[in-house]
Amino acid sequence: MVKVLWRWSILAGLFAFLAPQPVFAYDLSFTAMTAADRLLDEEADRWQSVAHPSAGCEVCDHHREHWDQNESLFGHGIIRRGERCFDDFISPMTNPVFFEDPRTLTEVRFIFLNHNLPASLSGNSIQVYAAQVRLALTERLSLIATKDGLIYSQSPIIESGFADLSAGLKYNFYRDPVAGRLLSGGVTFEVPLGTERSLQGNGDGEFHFFLTGGTRIGDRSHWLSATGLRQPIDENAENQVWYWSNHYDYRIGNLPLYVFSELNWYHWLSSGDAFGPVEGLDLFNFGSSGVTGNNIVTRAIGLKATPRRNMEVGVAYEFPMTKRKGILSSRWTADLIVRF
After folding, report:
1. Which of 34, 247, 314, 322 has its CB 3.0 to 4.6 Å from that of 304, i.e. a possible disulfide?
2. Residue 58 belongs to some domain of the structure
C-alpha cells in the first residue's frame, strides 16, 4: 500500500512540474471578466487565471496566438489545455464517481476514501485508493475515466481487491465566462472487471447518463449541481439508481482556501435479486432486493486549497442525514488534483 501511494506522489509531482504556468492572468476579485479587467504579469498572485480567447473574454483576444502555440499536451494536438475562464471554481469531492465537474479539464485526480460501515454491517471500515483522469479533446469535449482503484478492507463482508473500471465522454453545452455559468452532460460505462469478493465485477455493466452545471454567486461563492441516472444492463444483478448532488463553496478572504458543503440524494428506482436489502450508494451497486423507492441523503463539509493555479487539494467528512444509511456510516475523502 505504501508503495502505491509513493508511486502516485512521484507521478503527481512530475505532472505538476511539467504543467506550464500562464503568462497572462486575471485578478479573480473580478467576477465579470470583461475588457475592463486588468492584465497581470506572470509573477502575480496565485488567485489569477488565464481566460481562453474563444470564451468571449475581450481582453484576451490579442493573445490568441500565444494560446494556439501552446494548445496541446506533449505537443501532438490531441490532448488540449483545460478550461481557464473558470479557474476560480473548485471541483466537488463527494459522490466521487458520479458528481462530475462541469468544466472541460485535463487533469489527474488522486482520491483516498476511508469509508466506515454501519454497525449492522460489522461496523468495520474499507479504504479506497483511486485515480481519475480527464482529458480535454476539444474546447468542449473531454474524455473522462471516473472509476478504478484498489479497495482495502477490514470487513468480513467486503474483501480487498480491485474496483470496476468506468470511462466515457463529457460535452460542454453552454458556457458564459462573464456571468460565470456553464452546463455539461455526458455518459460513462462501467465495465465489471473488478474483484467479485470486493463486491465488484457483478452484472454486465452499467451506463451513467448525467447533466452537471455551475455558477458563480457574488465575488467568492460557487454552486455546482449534478443529476444522473445509473442504468445497469442486468437489473437483477444491479440496481437502477437516480441521484442529485449539490456543492456550495465560499472562498476565505484573499487566501487560497475554500470552505464547502455538499449534499447527495440517492433514489433507488429498481430492486435486484443478487443481494440483501442494503443500498450500495456510489461505490457499489449490489443488485439489492426490496429497495425500490428508498432514499438516502448524505451531507458533507470540507476544506479545499489551491496552492497553484493547476493544483487542488482537499478533505471532506460525509455522513448520512436519513434514517436509512445503506452501506455508509461515515466517510473521510481526500483528493489531490493536478491539471494542465
Report:
1. 314
2. yes
